[in-house]
Amino acid sequence: MSQSxxxxxxxxxxxxxxxDYMEFVLFDKEYGxxxxxxxxxxxxHFITSPLVSKHFSHCIAKHYIKESTFxxxxxxxxxxxxxxxxxxxxxxDKKELPNKYIxxxxxxxxxxxxxSIISExxxxxxxxxxxxxxxxxxxxxxxxxxxxxxxxxxxxxxxHVPGGYQKAYIxxxxxxxxxxxxxxxxxxxxxxxxxxNLPNNYIFEYSYAQRDIINEISGVLHRACFxxxxxxxxxxxxxxxxxxxxxxxxxxxxxxxxxxLSDVGTKDVSAFVNFTYLKNIFxxxxxxxxxxxNQANYLINFxxxxxxxxNDIDELNAVKKLIMPNxxxxxxxxxxxxxxxxxxxxxxxxxxxxxxx
Length: 357
Ligand SMILES: C[S@@+](CC[C@H](N)C(=O)[O-])C[C@H]1O[C@@H](n2cnc3c(N)ncnc32)[C@H](O)[C@@H]1O
What we know:
Blueprint: H1 3-12, E1 16-17, H2 18-27, H3 33-36, H4 49-52, H5 54-67, E2 72-76, H6 82-93, E3 100-104, H7 108-120, E4 128-132, E5 141-147, E6 156-161, E7 164-170, E8 176-181, E9 202-206, H8 208-220, E10 223-233, H9 235-238, E11 249-252, E12 255-257, E13 268-270, E14 273-274, H10 275-284, E15 288-294, H11 295-301, H12 304-307, H13 313-323, E16 332-339
Parallel strand pairs: 2-3, 2-5, 3-4, 5-10, 10-14
Antiparallel strand pairs: 1-7, 6-7, 6-9, 7-8, 10-16, 11-12, 11-13, 15-16
Helix pairs in contact: 5-6
């Protein structure tokens, strides 16, 4: 998408907030990156954990077996269906298949891809596979998985200024304009967990859309276990002085940059996930927090190290990438929450691995 394509958005809307912009460049049916380009894998822009190694999905499968009370798995934002395929083949071998696997996916391009891979691998012979386009159509009991969904959900950019806050809008010179925002009075303001002494001109993100998705899921799911994998921090780790320009991150052909207004529509745009914010919204919706930990500790708790074929150097290097602190082991986290589940043992994670939210 060229810069001039952005004029289409400027014509559609008088004011473009950053969340409007993100929605357009990522998900617009005609121009959005997720609708027109290979996003994931070597040929795409970036690689996610399920694509790094099948052992990531096998650990989730072990978690599903441990929970053992759900006959439906729901995946939100299933990408190229790698996670679904590896997880279901593992569960087949263990004779623990669910009855149903449901994808909730926004991108038509990826739905097509998921359908083609599911058919190629004959996964529908194992379980009933379906796609829903409205969260209201999900069942009210399920084991839910999302990997790197929340970081790409559109977010607004907000700046703390003397005496208040300002919100970013994109002007027709493709620059940011800042406009006054009565943010302190937003009912969800407290949920972010901003520090009291936030310096002036400090920039941070705030996603109304994340809140809406959580509220919507909570309205439908009555009994569930939900695993949210993503990169990010608790609020006390997120709002450090050295992140005073915010956390919007772009990636194009595996190269990272921090200017979402350059190369418009040809690169991925995402933001660090504030897990304190997610936790607070889930808690308001009567979910119980089971655990929050970094990806390495989660995978090690599910014995990823015992599963590796140590003679296979590629497999060894892939698992290293998932768990090493300088790769995906520490920045990536998992938030595990439950609703209306009393019967299973919650204490299967090592106490020292749990991060306080
Ligand atoms: C960064 S990709 C991760 C894909 C996959 N989970 C993985 O780890 O490889 C984000 C995924 O979430 C989907 N997605 C983004 N926003 C969504 C939304 N609001 N509802 C459903 N799916 C969404 C994208 O189309 C894509 O499949």
